[in-house]
């Protein structure tokens, strides 16, 4: 008898654990605050949206939209209002909201536009996928866009995929240096596609799909790294035929490229 | 035998058809590109004439309102001309000279309009007007061949490949260079760009390459005993520095350290990074502060932290004066791995070539309730130094403001503390 009661209790709790998603998927042990990125932030945004505090995109980036939503939640539930998802806040959030982790991640992977409001069937909260994810999956300095990153990663991969990492960051830095120089166009796109500016544009290698390393190199350049020490040009001394490029003041050599003003 | 001849004939015919089709496609593509270049050339020529007319017209007015309208026009057209000229396959030299010269005209117009320096504009533009007229005439001569009936893409290919000396734009290039030097000795943007080379003014004691490695290992103990390759910057570099490349286990990276004074300019290390997150945001903050202390960067504070797939990027700025204002142009950036909290990158070039601060700039209080529309909440306010459009370093209020709406849209607004000019408005996602 005792054994069957014990088994029933285990069965009930086990079932609840499966049915009630907010107990199955809870945050990691990390404190989550502005600037953070990843699965914990996705869960935070989804849960805040479930309760109606967050109305932005669920993208895993803890920006100001998430910050104000979290503060409003903390205020309503009489928690410390600091915009930081610590243990108490997360515990409270988990106890009053649901989180459909698999569904949310599936939408993100498919690049669907979706929301995660409570009380609305999930099927009604997604509006079909674009086929590929166009969501922002990196945090960039405010002056750059995801499109800039993509375009530059293509250029870096096409121009310098065989170069050391430093050389790839250097190519990205040259593009950004041109953006600041009065001698070049005013946008990243115009700089990259300026006729004759980059070999990869001329021979079509810019259209190769860049790898993660090229994207990381661009990200580092966008965050301020410039291994070229402010260069505006580079060339391969083995193949360069222009007298003009040889006349430029040279700064340093990285891999196969000489960087110059 | 008959069959072989039959098959061979079919193969030759198929090959002929294929090559005809490829040739036709190439011709079509060439014609499309040629049409686009001709269109851009026409646009550039028209914009050049319009710009020249506008500069000329601006010399007519003494009335400030009429002149301001013309100055705005000049600034807009100069930007459009720059954009069009950059889409033409001109040689690098010609394109750069055009972009600089016309950019200077636009910049002068903006400066005159913002600072109401109308007399200065009139003085400077007398000569520019004449030179622009002569450039416009030379441009017409240089480009006339591109409109002829037998024009084809090879003409453009030749321009792009030939040295400027042999191209039809030889005279244009040479005059542009001369006029740039005489008409605009050094504009604000050029001088701002040249500031990046200010490190040539360092007068600290020179260090050896062994001392440079030693310094690097003190700052970044994780790479101690790595295999180093040290080269010195090229002779033309405006300031000499050691370029240290290192390999240690799976880590490969570099560091640039000035010869004078041994200031570390930048350091970057690449290694495979584990997927799982091993350090919290607070630990990253603590590690950052530990490093700053060890490196002797005692006057900087964290401005922003951004987590990405592999690492945290941390932006810091120098803090100065009684009012603890952040000097954004004197920044340091750090890159810290998410798996172990290892320092993967340091960029301190801007910090080394620090800006001169005018701490005496007036700070006139602003009533934010009347400055912003109702429903806008000022959530954060601090003082910063940043550059205005004329590249002057100004003390400013930096405000984080939020619309009281469902979306909680947030903006970063930068306002000059003295004249209350709004220098920047950025949407903060």
Automatic annotation (TrEMBL), chain A:
Belongs to the SleB family. Keywords: Cell wall biogenesis/degradation, Germination, Hydrolase, Signal, Sporulation. Residues 38-93 form the Peptidoglycan binding-like domain. This is Spore cortex-lytic enzyme. It comes from Lysinibacillus halotolerans. Residues 1-26 form the signal peptide. It holds the Pfam family PG_binding_1. GO terms for biological process: cell wall organization; spore germination; sporulation resulting in formation of a cellular spore. One of its GO terms (molecular function) is hydrolase activity. Coiled coil: none annotated. InterPro entries: Cell_wall_hydrolase_SleB, Peptidoglycan-bd-like, PGBD-like_sf, PGBDSf, SleB_dom1, Spore_cortex_SleB. Residues 162-260 form the Cell wall hydrolase SleB domain.
From TrEMBL, chain B:
The lineage of its organism: Bacteria, Bacillati, Bacillota, Bacilli, Bacillales. Residues 168-354 form the Sporulation protein YpeB PepSY1 and PepSY2 domain. This is Sporulation protein. InterPro entries: YpeB_N (IPR048402), YpeB_PepSY1-2 (IPR014239). Coiled coil: none annotated. Pfam families: YPEB_N, YPEB_PepSY1-2. GO terms for biological process: spore germination. Residues 26-110 form the Sporulation protein YpeB N-terminal domain.
């Amino acid at each position: 008898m005792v054994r069957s009661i014990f088994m029933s209790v285990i069965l009930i709790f086990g079932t609840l654990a499966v049915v009630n998603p907010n107990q199955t998927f809870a945050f990691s042990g990390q404190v989550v605050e502005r600037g953070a990125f990843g699965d914990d932030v996705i869960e935070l945004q989804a849960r805040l949206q479930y309760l109606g505090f967050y109305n932005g995109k669920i993208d895993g980036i803890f920006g100001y939209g998430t910050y104000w939503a979290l503060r409003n939640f903390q205020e309503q539930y009489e928690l410390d209002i600091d915009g930081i998802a610590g243990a108490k806040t997360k515990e409270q959030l988990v106890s009053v909201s649901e989180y459909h982790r698999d569904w949310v991640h599936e939408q993100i992977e498919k690049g669907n536009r979706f929301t995660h409001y409570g009380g609305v069937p999930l099927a009604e909260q997604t509006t079909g996928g674009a086929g590929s994810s166009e969501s922002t999956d990196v945090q960039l300095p405010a002056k750059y866009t995801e499109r800039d990153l993509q375009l530059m990663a293509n250029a870096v991969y096409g121009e310098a995929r065989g170069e050391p990492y430093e050389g790839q960051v250097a190519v990205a830095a040259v593009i950004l240096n041109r953006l600041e120089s009065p001698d070049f166009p005013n946008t990243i796109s115009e700089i990259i596609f300026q006729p004759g500016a980059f070999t990869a544009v001329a021979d079509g290698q810019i259209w190769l799909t860049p790898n993660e390393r090229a994207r990381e190199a661009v990200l580092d350049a966008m965050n301020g790294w410039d291994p070229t020490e402010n260069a505006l040009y580079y060339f391969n001394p083995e193949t360069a035929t222009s007298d003009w490029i040889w006349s430029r003041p040279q700064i340093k050599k990285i891999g196969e490229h000489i960087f110059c003003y | 035998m008959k069959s072989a001849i039959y098959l061979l004939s079919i193969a030759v015919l198929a090959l002929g058809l294929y090559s005809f089709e490829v040739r036709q496609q190439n011709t079509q593509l060439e014609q499309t590109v040629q049409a686009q270049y001709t269109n851009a050339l026409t646009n550039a020529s028209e914009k050049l004439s319009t710009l020249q007319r506008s500069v000329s017209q601006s010399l007519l007015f003494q009335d400030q309102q009429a002149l301001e309208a013309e100055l705005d026009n000049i600034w807009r057209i100069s930007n459009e001309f720059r954009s069009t000229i950059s889409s033409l396959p001109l040689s690098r030299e010609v394109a750069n000279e055009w972009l600089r010269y016309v950019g200077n005209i636009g910049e002068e117009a903006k400066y005159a309009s913002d600072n109401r320096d109308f007399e200065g504009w009139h003085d400077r533009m007398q000569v520019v007007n004449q030179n622009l007229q002569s450039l416009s005439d030379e441009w017409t001569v240089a480009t006339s061949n591109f409109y002829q009936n037998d024009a084809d893409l090879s003409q453009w290919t030749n321009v792009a490949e030939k040295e400027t000396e042999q191209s039809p734009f030889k005279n244009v290039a040479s005059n542009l260079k001369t006029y740039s030097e005489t008409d605009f000795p050094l504009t604000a943007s050029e001088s701002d760009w040249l500031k990046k080379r200010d490190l040539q003014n360092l007068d600290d004691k020179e260090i050896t390459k062994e001392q440079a490695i030693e310094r690097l290992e003190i700052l970044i103990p994780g790479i101690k005993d790595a295999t180093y390759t040290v080269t010195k910057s090229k002779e033309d570099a405006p300031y000499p520095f050691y370029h240290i490349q290192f390999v240690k286990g799976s880590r490969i990276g570099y560091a640039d350290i000035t010869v004078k004074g041994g200031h570390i300019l930048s350091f970057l290390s690449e290694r495979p990074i584990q997927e799982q997150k091993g350090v919290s945001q607070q630990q990253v903050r603590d590690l950052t502060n530990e490093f700053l202390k060890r490196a002797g960067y005692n006057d900087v504070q964290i401005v922003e932290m951004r987590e990405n797939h592999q690492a945290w990027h941390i932006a810091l700025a120098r803090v100065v004066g009684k009012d603890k204002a952040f000097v954004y142009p004197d920044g340091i950036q750090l890159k810290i791995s998410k798996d172990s909290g290892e320092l993967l990158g340091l960029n301190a070039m801007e910090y080394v070539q620090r800006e001169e601060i005018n701490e005496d700039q007036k700070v006139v209080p602003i009533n934010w309730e009347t400055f912003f529309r109702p429903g806008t909440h000022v959530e954060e306010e601090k003082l910063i130094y940043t550059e205005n459009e004329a590249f002057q370093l100004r003390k400013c209020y930096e405000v984080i403001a939020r619309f009281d709406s469902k979306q909680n849209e947030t903006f970063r607004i930068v306002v000059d503390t003295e004249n209350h000019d709004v220098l920047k408005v950025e949407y903060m996602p």
